[in-house]
Amino acid sequence: MDGNDGNLTGPIGPELLGRLLDQHADRLELYARQLCNCPEDAVQEAFVELARQPAVPAEQILPWLYRVVRNKAISASRAVRRHKSHELQAAGRRGAWFDPTPGDAIDAAAAVVILEDLPQLEREVVVARIWGGLTFQQIGELIGATDSTAHRRYESALAAIRRKLRTSCLKKD
Amino acid sequence: MSEKRLNEELSAVEAALASLKPAASLSDRDRVMFLAGRASANAYLPPTQRLKTQWLWPCTTAVSLLLAIASSGILFLRGTAKGEKEAAYAKSNQIQTAENTPQPLWYEHTRKETPEVKRQRPSSGRDNIPMDLLSLNLLIAEKGVEALPSPSWIPIGPEKPPRRGPIMQDEWKMF
Fold first, then answer.
1. Phi/psi of residue B30, each to 5°?
2. How is A47-87 classified by DSSP, letter by letter?
3. ipTM above 0.95?
4. Is 2.40.50.140 the CATH number for A107-173?
């Protein structure tokens, strides 16, 4: 289910909301993690906001969720920067990005290090594309750019990741 | 991912990254569902009712507050005007009473006290005794008849000629 369950005419139901939570909460949190230190709060607020909507077209649910998560994560990040609370800073460091599995084609910890080195906007594009499954047009709308710009940033980010992966492999050898 | 093709190397990197599974969500699913359910309660209402439920109490509160402020203002202004009016009325009434109210007879007498009457009047602390009928009744009821002021100071008309001494024998003889 990618949020394309036909056209919604009324408010979102509990079953669909539960399914969206199960399938997208972790990916949305990974995306929010690129922007703030409390990704679960941003995701939770986004789902509550979704339930409050009188009607959301089915094909727009996922991009809508990413947009709301992004806005809430940016707001939370600004609030943290304002307060400069040590507790919140520490809270931001908790939680892993990925669950390591035997079938991983790349080391999860290394991927995190490499992704963290990327500029924030490129990280956003990569996460939204690879794990969020958004189209370049949707990513462009999300970051306030054209789909071409989004694609260009994606390519550039992948190229940078490839270079860093090669460098790390060479170091290991 | 069919919009724009990537070269093979970048596709391989993309596939490698896609093999990573995002960490499990830290959100409390039950809590999110509860909050979402509560938030969605309004979403199921028809638009007019939604507006009513959303704005009924805030509007009622705002209207009540405005009414309370307006009432307080009116009461304050009316109170001030009434106070001034009452003061003016009391003043004019006082003057009117002093000028037009018929005074008891004794009052006139006391006002017309002659120096002689004043001299005859006992100075026993009774100067301040009110002399209207009701006061006299109260005074009698409280202290008895003895407490009544001496009538000697109350003027009773023109002064009598001084009494002569006993009739002399010469005078008897005249009769």
1. -65, -40
2. HHHHHH-S---GGGHHHHHHHHHHHHHHHHHHHHHHH--HH
3. no
4. no
What pTM was computed for the model? 0.58
Is the CB of residue B31 less than 8 Å from the CB of residue A41?
no
> Number of helices (H) and strands (E), helices first, in chain B?
7, 1
Spatial contact of A67 and A53, defined as CB atoms under 8 Å apart: no
Residue type (1 letter), A42:
A
Whole-angstrom Cα distance, residue B54 to residue B39?
Answer: 12
Q: Which of A34, A38, A43, A47 is best to mutate for the B interface (most B CBs within 10 A)?
A: A47
A32 touches A123 (CB < 8 A): no
* Contact check, Cβ <8 Å, A11/B21: no
Whole-angstrom Cα distance, residue A151 to residue A157?
10
Longest Cα pair distance anywhere in chain A, in angstroms? Answer: 58
Q: Quote the minimal CA–CA distance from B55 to chain A in Å.
A: 16
Q: What are phi and psi of B152, to 5 degrees?
A: -60, -30
What is the DSSP code (8-state) at residue A3? S
Sequence spans of domains, chain A: 1-96, 107-173
Interface A–B counts its CB contacts (< 8 A) at: 126
Selected for mutation to probe chain B from A15, A98, A101 (highest B CB count within 10 Å) is A98
- Token pair, residue B42, equals 């309004």
Per-residue pLDDT tens digits for B28-75: 899 999 998 888 876 667 777 777 777 888 899 999 999 999 999 999
A3 contacts A59 by C-beta, under 8 angstroms: yes
Residues whose CB is less than 8 angstroms from the CB of residue B162 and which lie 6 or more positions away in sequence, other chains included: none
Buried b / exposed e over B126-150, threshold 16 CB at 10 Å, is: eeeeeeeeeebeebeeeeeeeeebe
Lowest mean pLDDT among A56-60, A62-66, A110-114: A56-60
- Partners of residue B22 on adjacent β-strands: A98
